[in-house]
Inverse folding.
């Protein structure tokens, strides 16, 4: 029984790491096909990819869209969470539902709806329209994360600040926001990781300037290539670094 | 501060997020719904209340087949992923020493963060005719000719299962560690063997968590375009693939909208079917 459990664990980890292991290994391939036999290691594909303007432009676009849309999503989510947690509003359950609603719909449908409206109104597709779509999908998450951490224990500090004569703006900026910094940062990082890797909305809502997943998609049409392995490995490294930073800084701090 | 200004102030905080959601989610969604009842005459769009698109969905074989294919793939993926992820989560929760559990879990879901498009491509590296599996099997002499693995439904399901096993391991593990060990001790004291403890104690207690994870899997899987497009080949198309064909080659927005509405309706049905076990507030 015990042996079977460990055997299963090893097998499961093998399955989980098979594709990404293959991806990374053959990004060091010395040759034009990322398949066995492995020759190398060689860094030629990394140097080629990093010198490719299309790729670096797309990478830059992705970061801009991710950071911009996450900042907007977190700002709107924070304000809404504050309003709904600290003020008694009629229909607040309904509004919470409305703000969470985009989570229940697949990205393809969010993108399709926006595409139809943009087409009808004649607004051109750009990085901005993709960013608008990313705010739609990240706002519910940012709102939910920040709303969940708006505990009653913070309310006393806010009340004290108000009693001491702070305006509402000052309370929000100088008392509430700093106390919720871990939740706000977690919401921001989660938004960035989701947005910068998002494909279908970016694919539907951009045209000339494209994000990295869309660029990777267009390269995919030419089949297996060590260039793709190299890009994929770089993206994986960046995402994993972000996740590990999140794991070992913010989440740890919250635990202690 | 009077209650009146307080409420007004509260609205001021909520308004921006609410307006954004209305303008860029609710309105587009309603327009899409209206679009599904519009029709194309030649290349020009005619608004109205036409059922043409829905009739086409029910009668044109390549359209209703896509709905069936999507359902078959999604149900297969959901069941296989739960069956594979549950033992993994249980082993991490009950067999791995507590101080190593967090690390084991982190490692088990790290490849989750492989870029979304790249993840399917990485499976192509493994499954292609000249890929890792075929080359390895040929080298050790098990097969003489490469077998077809990529561009099949098997490849699509494998790509999906890989992703959702990681997701479900996370959600099921979260459920298992919440269980007090006393339940298991009590069951053992009362003479239950390992299987009976699982069947009558642990499984029922973790059913809400399983249902939530399975529902999440269903929703994400049925709406995904990339995995079947990269791994499935073009022998059979899923709903998202057909939607993209309508958008691209044919610019048939009404039909694409009708398909999207049907896809949402299926998700709604799945929600209603599993609602009694779901606890979405605890995700």
């Amino acid at each position: 029984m015990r042996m079977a459990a460990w055997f299963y664990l090893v097998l499961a980890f093998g399955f989980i790491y098979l594709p990404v292991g293959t991806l990374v290994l053959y990004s060091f391939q010395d040759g034009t096909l990322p398949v066995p036999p492995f020759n190398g290691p060689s860094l030629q594909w990394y140097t080629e990819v990093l010198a490719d303007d299309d790729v670096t432009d797309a990478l830059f676009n992705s970061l801009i869209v991710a950071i911009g849309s996450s900042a907007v999503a977190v700002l709107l989510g924070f304000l809404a969470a504050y309003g709904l947690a600290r003020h008694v509003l009629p229909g607040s359950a309904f509004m919470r539902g409305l703000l969470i609603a985009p989570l229940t719909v697949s990205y393809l449908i969010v993108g399709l709806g926006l595409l139809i409206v943009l087409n009808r109104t004649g607004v051109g597709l750009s990085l901005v329209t993709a960013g608008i779509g990313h705010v739609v999908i990240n706002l519910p998450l940012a709102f939910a994360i920040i709303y969940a951490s708006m505990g009653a224990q913070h309310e006393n500090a806010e009340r004290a600040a108000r009693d001491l004569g702070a305006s509402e703006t000052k309370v929000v900026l100088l008392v509430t926001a700093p106390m919720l910094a871990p939740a706000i940062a977690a919401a921001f990082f989660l938004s960035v990781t989701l947005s910068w890797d998002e494909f279908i909305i970016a694919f539907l809502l951009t045209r000339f300037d494209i994000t990295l997943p869309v660029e990777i998609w267009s390269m995919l049409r030419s089949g297996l290539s060590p260039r793709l392995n190299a890009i994929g490995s770089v993206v994986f490294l960046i995402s994993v670094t972000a996740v590990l930073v999140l794991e070992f800084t913010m989440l740890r701090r919250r635990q202690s | 501060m009077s209650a009146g200004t307080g409420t007004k102030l509260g609205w001021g905080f909520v308004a921006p997020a609410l307006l954004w959601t209305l303008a860029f989610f609710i309105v587009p969604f309603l327009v899409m719904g209206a679009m599904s009842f519009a029709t194309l005459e030649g290349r020009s769009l005619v608004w109205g209340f036409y059922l043409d698109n829905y009739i086409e969905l029910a009668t044109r074989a390549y359209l209703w087949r896509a709905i069936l294919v999507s359902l078959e793939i999604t149900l297969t993926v959901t069941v296989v992923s739960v069956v594979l992820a549950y033992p993994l989560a249980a082993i991490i929760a009950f067999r791995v020493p507590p101080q190593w559990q967090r690390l084991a879990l982190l490692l088990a879901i790290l490849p989750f963060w492989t870029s979304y498009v790249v993840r399917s491509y990485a499976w192509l590296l493994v499954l292609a005719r000249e890929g890792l599996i075929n080359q390895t099997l040929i080298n050790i002499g098990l097969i003489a000719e490469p077998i077809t693995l990529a561009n099949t439904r098997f490849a699509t399901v494998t790509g999906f299962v890989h992703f959702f096993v990681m997701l479900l391991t996370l959600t099921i593990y979260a459920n298992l560690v919440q269980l007090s060990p006393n339940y298991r001790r009590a069951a053992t004291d009362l003479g239950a063997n390992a299987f009976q403890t699982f069947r009558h104690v642990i499984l029922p207690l973790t059913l809400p968590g399983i249902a939530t994870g399975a529902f999440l899997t269903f929703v994400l899987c049925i709406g995904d375009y990339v995995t079947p497009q990269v791994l499935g080949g073009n022998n059979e198309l899923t709903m998202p693939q057909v939607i993209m064909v309508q958008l691209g080659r044919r610019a048939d927005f009404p039909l694409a909208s009708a398909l999207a509405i049907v896809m949402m309706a299926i998700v709604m049905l799945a929600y209603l079917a599993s609602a009694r076990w779901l606890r979405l507030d605890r995700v």
